[in-house]
């Protein structure tokens, strides 16, 4: 009977279905094949390239009404201060991170967490499972039984109840100690990030730490039963100068994208953005374009070559639209730049873990601080100007004259924009 039904389908309908199936398969296969080819070619060309040490603009300090802020552009100083904070902890240590390498830097954190737990400090640690697939599980098993640990799975156990809510990567990088001192920014944990990546992290001492600690507690409590929750603690100030915006996919909460859109819409003088992966949705692109068209000096700094060649090529698909709008594109050439920062009009700034891409703004667990303060903005501008000295400015003429094959690759990868 089923064969009779199939044969009764008109030839034209079968032809249309076959054509649609072939078109759909090609739409999936072409970008996947292009991405695979790029990744293989990049590995063959650069597998033996020498790592270049990242420039270090320095450490910067500012004093706000309710918080002391330190801006780090060197992993060595950052890790030293993070370990010092853990070693001095008296009550609680909360950490959330993306990549945690099994090297000497990673081992320092293992030892510090174990020592804190041994002296009675409550230690809670969350790290991402997907990002650390190549790290031996034996490395994390060094953590003592007193250290509470969660390895966030690639796909949550309740995936079937809501795919979007239970598939976000844990991309946040936060350390909060004793409800008093907190660190957040782009630095993962590992030696390579300290020496060879140009990144930015901040330390806050004061009321701004509550938001960092609370974002970790929210994720922990979503993953644990009522008898294993991190206790709520009240904020010390209802209106801290350091505002924390945290994506929480399990609750379908994504405030960082809206934070960027609101700030860009307010800009009247200049917008300085640094991001390692620039694959925004059209609302973000349009906001930047409209700012430039109303006379705002918009500058976007990205790596000349990042650690993800496919992301680089997908990002290049936006360059023409930005350049046509008068936006300046700066290609950081000295090393891999991984900072996720922005500063606007000498007033507003953000530092955090979110890239300007769809994964960070609409999918992953992320945390950015938002600071409205001229003194902090001035330091962020100093860092941007220092980084700009290591950049190549992409001109419209150079971009228009790129090889036709490059245009073809950009076009082939266009479908990946919605997934990266």
Structure description:
The protein has 420 residues and is α/β, with parallel strands linked by helices. It has 2 domains: 60-241, 2-Layer Sandwich (Endonuclease, Chain A), CATH 3.30.870.10; 255-419, Endonuclease, Chain A. The chain has helices spanning 2-7, 11-46, 75-88, 104-118, 137-140, 191-195, 209-222, 255-266, 282-293, 309-316, 319-324, 358-362, 374-388, 396-400, 404-413, and strands at residues 60-63, 67-72, 92-97, 122-128, 147-152, 174-177, 181-185, 197-198, 201-206, 242-246, 270-274, 278-279, 297-303, 328-332, 336-337, 341-344, 348-352, 356-357, 367-372, 391-394. The strands form 4 sheets. Strands 1-2-9-7-6-3-4-5 form an 8-stranded mixed β-sheet, sandwiched between helices. The chain has an 8-stranded mixed β-sheet with strand order 10-19-17-16-11-13-14-20, sandwiched between helices. A two-stranded parallel ribbon has the order 8-15. A hairpin with a 3-residue loop joins strand 16 (341-344) and strand 17. Helix 3 (75-88) runs parallel beside helix 4 and helix 8 (255-266) runs parallel beside helix 9. The longest helix has 36 residues, at 11-46. The chain is globular and about 60 Å long. It starts with a helix and ends in a 7-residue tail after the last helix. Residues 1-7, 20-28 and 32-49 have low confidence and may be disordered.
